[in-house]
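Appendix B, Record 12. Input sequence as logged:
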Amino acid sequence: MEAIYFGTEKTWGTGSGNGPWIMADLENGLFSGVNQHLNSGDPTVSFRFLTAIVKGTANQWAIRGGNAASGGLSTFYTGVRPNVSGYNPMHKEGAIILGIGGDNSKSSAGTFYEGVMTSGYPSDATENSVQANIVAAGYATFSGGGTGATGTIVSGVSSSKCVDNNNASATNGNKVQMWDCDGNTAAQNWTVNSNGTLTIDGGCMDITGASNANNTKVEWWTCNGGANQQWTASNGELVNLASGKCLDDPASNTTNGTQLIIFTCNGGSNQKWALP
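Logged structural output:
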């Protein structure tokens, strides 16, 4: 049985992007694939709630993962066991360890919420069914830390650019865009609410069609309590509750009128925002 490791350790295996990645802690190394190098098929993952699966059998193992709040699972590695000496054949030593490594180390800084170990090598179909049940459970978080403050939401790309409700219009579908900061006008006077909503002009910052897809446009819409209108501030990012994706200035374009989108969180300055 492999241990799941969710981290950014670059001295061993890595995946694409800057991490974090889902990897397997196979005792003397972290593996993202067949060796202790790059597996470009193991993507950076930044979902607010993550499903991570590592499974193994004789000379075969796999890494799978996905957003625990929506969608299905993807396979990030499937193939033979690592080609580093000592890993094939595998050696089972029959231990379940939570919070420490096999060498009794306790250097993890992550957070472990829920987990399960099973025997055997479950099929992808079985895991897909488990994922469907997880999504149906409706894991969610509300901001809870909303201050009720009102003011501008300033871009991490340029401090002279702000999130703007086009022409301060209270029309459903009105675009939320980049614009020169102009001192808390009606179009830029956002309120950060304790229920996770960002409100302006009597409505909410909203995801078009409640879609979870990258590049989905952000708009103004009448507040309706939907998760696509709820946001969590995390590490300078505004993460949409329904999609697990970040409010994004596409291609760091600061041209006035550039409509904002949601996109997979990647830590870029075009996904950083200073709240009032």
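Residues 237 and 267 are 8 Å apart (CA to CA).
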